[in-house]
Amino acid sequence: MPLCNGQPGLRGKIQVEVREPAAGESADRNVGVTSTLDFIASDETLDRYDEVIVASGWKLDNYVRNPVFQNSHQYGDIIYTIGRALITEVRTMGERKVLFQRVEFATEANPIAKIAYNLYKGKFLNAVSVGFIPLQWENGEPGNLWHRRYTEQELLEVSAVGIPANPNALALGLKAGAITKQQIKDLGALLHYALRPRKPFEPQRRVTEKYLRMSKLAAAVRELVKRI
Fold this sequence. Notes:
Elements: E1 10-19, E2 36-41, E3 51-53, E4 58-59, H1 61-65, E5 68-71, E6 81-93, E7 96-105, H2 111-121, E8 127-139, E9 148-160, H3 167-176, H4 181-194, H5 209-227
Helix pairs in contact: 2-4, 4-5
C-alpha cells in the first residue's frame, strides 16, 4: 500500500508497552521532558497476518531525520502531527530485542496530542502502527508457524492508532478521568476549524476518505460534548 511518501510498502500494527521514562534513566536522552512516554515494542511475535518483523532488521536512518509521530497515518494537515520521537533505536531488553521509542507529545500545541498522551498514559491505548519498506524477507515452509518473516526493513513512519478515530476511546477516557471535558471541547474546536467552509471563490473541497473520517469524528465529538 502507498506510504506517506508515495512509495509502496507495508503498515503493521505493533502492540507496545507504554510507560513514563524512569527518573533513574539518566543515561538516556531527554529524561524529564514533559508529556513524554516510552514505547517498547513487543518481542518478535506473530502478528494477525502470521508474519514476524525481526527487530534487529530495522533500518532507521531515514526516519530519524524527520521523526514525527502522526495520528493514524494521516499527513494532509499539520493537525495530524501529534509529537516527535526523541529516541528511536533497537534495544536488547532481557532476552528480547525491541524497537524502542521515546515520544514527546505536542500537548501544548495540539489538542489531539494532549488527548493521545492521556489515553496512552491511562492504558486506554496500547498500540502503534509502523509504515515500512520490506528489504529482505523469507517465506515460511509448510509446517512453520509464520507465513513470512521480515529480516530487514526500512522504517518510514510511526503513527498512533485509534487516536481519536475511535470515539469510544474518547468516551472511556473521559469517564475514567484520563482526559478532561475541556480537552474534548478543545478537540471539537480544532475539528470545527479544520472543516470550516472555504472562501466562495475557492474550488469546492474534494471529498476524500480522510475528510469523511474527520467529519464523522467531529459529529461524534459534538454528541459527546452534549452529554457532558
